Structures are given as structure tokens and as C-alpha cells.
Amino acid sequence: MNIFEGNYKLSNEKVGIVISRFNSNITTELLEGAKDCLIRHGLNEKNIDVYYVPGSFEVPFLVKQLVKTKKYNGLIALSAVIRGETYHFEVVSNEISKGISQINLTSDIPITFGVITADTVEQALNRAGIKSGNKGFDAAMALVEMMNLNKIIKD
Ligand SMILES: Nc1c(NC[C@H](O)[C@H](O)[C@H](O)CO)[nH]c(=O)[nH]c1=O
Ligand SMILES: CC(=O)[C@@H](O)COP(=O)(O)O
């Protein structure tokens, strides 16, 4: 059996989504994409909990706390970091990326990365469902596969 070929049909899994309010005009679209993907794969919307944090920098903290609750089969991090005039873009982008990666390495549930890091608002909008896909949908699709794989390994 090829363990990487699952039926990808969700049932009673619980998913938590941590979303940044910063650039909410974009992150809201990421959330819709993520929920669309999960529901299309059979998850009831009542099994999806959404947690809002101020910005990308705060996302890893809440993801870490949600892992500790042991309530969820998987978590999704959603945010949008858009370059301004200073080095702050690099700092924020690197910290959320590093933070989610580090939590993944010690967590027994998968956490996927639906974070847009863009030079312009147009680039960000295009990746939130306008022209270049939806990073929220993509992160949810990755979580569907990872939860399926995690379940196979644990069974
Ligand atoms: N510039 C962006 C931020 N900055 C805010 C930080 O994430 C953080 O909330 C603040 O430094 C307080 O700790 N956040 C984003 O999500 N996107 C940005 O473009
Ligand atoms: C990514 C950011 O933190 C950025 O939006 C902040 O803008 P600025 O670098 O002009 O302060």
C-alpha cells in the first residue's frame, strides 16, 4: 500500500485555524478558501474553530497553545505579510515561518502554513483567490493530506 494515497475524506476531525487580523481584507479571503477546502472534503463547519490574533507575529504563540489543548487533529496558520518601507517585513515574515516550523517539529498534529509574504497588495490579493490561487485553500489541502497520513501512521 502506498501510504501517500489516502481517500482524503474527512469525517469527525477537529481543525483549528489561527488567522491574523492584520491585512484582514486579505486574510479573510484566505479563511474562506481554507474553509471551502475543508468542507469540500467532508468536514462539517462546526468542526472548524477560528481564532483571531492581532498579527503574524502572534500566530505561532496561539498555535503552540492550541497544540497543548490536544483538541485538534490539525491546525492552519493564516496571515498576510506585505512589504512596507523598512526591514520589518523580513523580521515578521521570518518569525512566523520559523515559529510554525519549530512548533511542527515538536507537535504530534500537523500544522500547515497559509501565509502570504508579498511585496505589494496586488501580489497578496492575487494569492488570496483573485488570480494566482488561494494560499488558504492550499494550506487546508495540505492539512487534509497530512491529517490523513498522520492517522494512517498512528493506526
Ligand atoms: N506589518 C505586518 C504585521 N505587523 C504586525 C506584527 O505581526 C505584530 O502584530 C506586531 O508587531 C505586534 O506584535 N503583521 C502582519 O500580519 N502583516 C504585516 O504586513
Ligand atoms: C510587514 C510590515 O511590518 C510592514 O507592513 C510595516 O511597514 P513599514 O516597514 O513601512 O513600517
UniProtKB/TrEMBL annotation:
<protein>
    <recommendedName>
        <fullName>6,7-dimethyl-8-ribityllumazine synthase</fullName>
        <ecNumber>2.5.1.78</ecNumber>
    </recommendedName>
</protein>
<dbReference type="GO" id="GO:0005829">
    <property type="term" value="C:cytosol"/>
</dbReference>
<dbReference type="Pfam" id="PF00885">
    <property type="entry name" value="DMRL_synthase"/>
</dbReference>
<comment type="pathway">
    <text>Cofactor biosynthesis; riboflavin biosynthesis; riboflavin from 2-hydroxy-3-oxobutyl phosphate and 5-amino-6-(D-ribitylamino)uracil: step 1/2.</text>
</comment>
<comment type="function">
    <text>Catalyzes the formation of 6,7-dimethyl-8-ribityllumazine by condensation of 5-amino-6-(D-ribitylamino)uracil with 3,4-dihydroxy-2-butanone 4-phosphate. This is the penultimate step in the biosynthesis of riboflavin.</text>
</comment>
<feature type="binding site">
    <location>
        <begin position="80"/>
        <end position="82"/>
    </location>
    <ligand>
        <name>5-amino-6-(D-ribitylamino)uracil</name>
    </ligand>
</feature>
<feature type="binding site">
    <location>
        <position position="113"/>
    </location>
    <ligand>
        <name>5-amino-6-(D-ribitylamino)uracil</name>
    </ligand>
</feature>
<dbReference type="GO" id="GO:0009231">
    <property type="term" value="P:riboflavin biosynthetic process"/>
</dbReference>
<dbReference type="InterPro" id="IPR002180">
    <property type="entry name" value="LS/RS"/>
</dbReference>
<dbReference type="InterPro" id="IPR036467">
    <property type="entry name" value="LS/RS_sf"/>
</dbReference>
<comment type="similarity">
    <text>Belongs to the DMRL synthase family.</text>
</comment>
<dbReference type="GO" id="GO:0000906">
    <property type="term" value="F:6,7-dimethyl-8-ribityllumazine synthase activity"/>
</dbReference>
<feature type="binding site">
    <location>
        <begin position="56"/>
        <end position="58"/>
    </location>
    <ligand>
        <name>5-amino-6-(D-ribitylamino)uracil</name>
    </ligand>
</feature>
<feature type="binding site">
    <location>
        <begin position="85"/>
        <end position="86"/>
    </location>
    <ligand>
        <name>(2S)-2-hydroxy-3-oxobutyl phosphate</name>
    </ligand>
</feature>
<keyword id="KW-0686">Riboflavin biosynthesis</keyword>
<keyword id="KW-0808">Transferase</keyword>
<dbReference type="GO" id="GO:0009349">
    <property type="term" value="C:riboflavin synthase complex"/>
</dbReference>
<feature type="binding site">
    <location>
        <position position="127"/>
    </location>
    <ligand>
        <name>(2S)-2-hydroxy-3-oxobutyl phosphate</name>
    </ligand>
</feature>
<feature type="active site" description="Proton donor">
    <location>
        <position position="88"/>
    </location>
</feature>
<feature type="binding site">
    <location>
        <position position="22"/>
    </location>
    <ligand>
        <name>5-amino-6-(D-ribitylamino)uracil</name>
    </ligand>
</feature>
<dbReference type="InterPro" id="IPR034964">
    <property type="entry name" value="LS"/>
</dbReference>
